[in-house]
Amino acid sequence: MTQYLTISDAAEALSVSVNTIRAMLPKLGAVDLKGGSGKNRMIRIPEDAITAYLRECGIPDPAAVIEIQTTKPKEPFRLERRKT
Cα-flanking dihedrals φ and ψ of residue 61, to 5°? Predict the structure, then answer.
């Protein structure tokens, strides 16, 4: 059986604010158990959705990051001065 978390429990589990979780509700597959609106809503987030989200947010390979940082642009960056 799928376990559901409240918004505040999910925020605590991911170490983010409640507002961040509210912005992520569609991506996390949140469900409204009462089907109401306003204060009559009972929004819950499946634990499986949080686990899947964390899997998607994997840490990149450090070798790939170093390779990206060491490549130099073909043309040097030039900042034009504004004429006053």
Answer: -65, 125
Residue 77 in any domain: the answer is no
| Residue 60, SS3 per DSSP | coil
pLDDT in tens, 17-69: 999 988 988 888 887 776 766 677 788 888 888 888 888 877 666 665 555 55
Which structural domain range is residue 21 located in?
4-70
pTM summary value: 0.59
What is the end-to-end Cα distance of the chain in Å, rounded?
69
Residue 58 lies inside a defined structural domain of this protein: yes
| 9, part of any domain | yes
The pair of three-digit structure tokens given for residue 65, joined into one six-digit string: 């990051």
Is 10 domain-assigned?
yes
